Amino acid sequence: MKISLATNFDNNLIDKIKKYPVYEVYGKLKHDYIGGGRPDNTLSNVDKEKFENHVKKIREAGIRFNYLLNGSCLANVEQDPNWQYRFKEFLIYLKNVGVNALTITNPYILMFVKKYFKDDFKVRISTFACIDSYTKAKYWEDLGADYLCVDFVKINRDFKTLKYIVKNLKKSQIEILVTNSCLKNCPMIYTHTNGLSHASNQDKNGKLYEDWSLLYCQERELENIEEYIKSPWVRPEDIKYYEDIGIEHFKITERGFPTDELVKRVKAYVDRKYDGNLLDLIQGHGVVASKNLNLEKRQLSNRKEIYKEIKRVRGLGRTRDCERHIYIDNNKLDNFIKFFVDNKCTGNCNSCGYCNMIAQKVIYKNEEVCSYLQELYNKYDNLKM
Q1: Are 125 and 141 in contact (CB under 8 A)?
Q2: Which of 97, 124, 261, 375 could covalently link to 147 via disulfide, CB atoms 3.0 to 4.6 Å apart?
């Protein structure tokens, strides 16, 4: 097992993960020339001095630092010679600081890096590139990519496809994003990744960004709890099935989490065991809770207030003020993955019912919180346009 872990730029994190098989940590400045997978209005500011000191400490620990250049849309500015000059200077800065790996989504950017920096950086292709077949994986390998984080919303549980890709690639290594609760085959994936990219790009205005794509997914899961089971996360207990087909690289999020929560995730996957609410491992928000968790329903008059209230209840970019709306009993999911390992999943959810059956057995709803959230999502939908 080789873990690529998000960093929150707390130097204490490095000391706490040294004993685990974390070969790489990844992160980025709050905003830069390319943007990434989190809007900058939800991230704490990291100045260059703090960034440089953190990278130095990581490298001294014998761990690689992977800088995220994974924005999926640059509005064609990458073809502007003036922008290219500034971007090249930024890459020189990253190299001098000690960054020795990059995560990229845009093929143009990959070719740019390979032309001017050869093998100075190991290159990982972001899951934003939506690699869901051997053909796509081969294209990126031919362009010089070292690691490919596959399309988690499509093929994380497609063992037949994953096995074929691993077997037939010559150099590139496959990576699986394990801690994510997005919808399976999410219709928002391209819209969402593009929106996030612009919301963390220094040349764009990310202050106005509302993560309505995320709210769409949250509402869908709330209305259909089987979506939580269909969601292509990977339990710590099920890592072995991926290793059996030759995958050894696993990615753990979340950049906005406190150090103890990041360490908890690493420990769970290294131990291959977690007792508790699976949601605490697979969601990118809500793990940090206030001391007094009481559901306080509020009178709201406009869209901004409703959006802010959803964030308060769910713990989006802030502490969570209410109990978790659902509990997924991880201990009851033993052998769940075998259905997919044995290639029994046809993708025809309407005629199957497997995930719905599992959901009824392992998910417990806090009806009061769920009801309030549904009310908030409905109000937000009515006012977001």
Answers
A1: no
A2: 124
